[in-house]
Design brief:
Elements lengths: L9 H21 L13 H25 L3 H28 L10 H33 L3 H29 L6
Length: 180
């Protein structure tokens, strides 16, 4: 019998956050005008977000390496750091989108724009699923439900890695278009 180290009562909270976060972000993306104003250049947020996504990408790869080497405690610390940074990214992302006008892609070439749109659409689409996938992966890992954790990370890991990596790519592609 597996020892439970965190409460199963967290599952409804994970589901609630997994539903509320995409709805909130979707609502923010549909608002084309800023909701609040900060007294500093908010175009710093995308740079911060790209930095966070870069670090998360590296941490995910380090976490994979560590678990392959059966260094479980180090793996846990690295993955919790990646999860925490992803949550910090989400806060920064929300702050940016509530305070800055929508930025349209500014490249006139159809191939680069098509590539940008493909990466952006797949990034956004998969990011909706990473909240519950990463959350439940962390939950099962911390609950010592090893088999459930392993089964879930087969899906959550590559999606989380793709979302964090394409987050950096999206920033690099659209950063020349920022007005600030």
């Amino acid at each position: 019998m597996e020892q439970q180290s965190i409460s199963p009562k967290l599952k409804p909270l994970i589901w609630a956050v997994s539903i509320i976060v995409p709805l909130l972000v979707g609502g923010l993306l549909s608002a084309r005008e800023p909701i609040v104003h900060f007294d500093f250049n908010t175009y710093i947020f995308p740079k911060i977000n790209a930095g966070i996504n870069s670090i998360v990408t590296l941490l995910l790869l380090v976490g994979l390496y560590l678990i392959k080497k059966k260094r479980i405690n180090q793996h846990k610390k690295v993955m919790l750091t990646a999860f925490g940074l992803s949550a910090l990214f989400l806060v920064s992302y929300v702050l940016y989108h509530i305070s800055t006008p929508h930025t349209a892609y500014c490249n006139d070439g159809p191939v680069p724009k098509a590539l940008y749109l493909f990466i952006l659409i797949t990034h956004i689409g998969l990011s909706i699923f990473i909240v519950p996938l990463a959350s439940f992966s962390i939950f099962h890992g911390l609950s010592l439900s090893v088999e459930k954790h392993r089964k879930l990370v087969r899906f959550s890991f590559p999606i989380w890695l793709y979302v964090s990596l394409t987050g950096v790519l999206v920033y690099l592609m659209i950063s020349p278009c920022y007005g600030g």
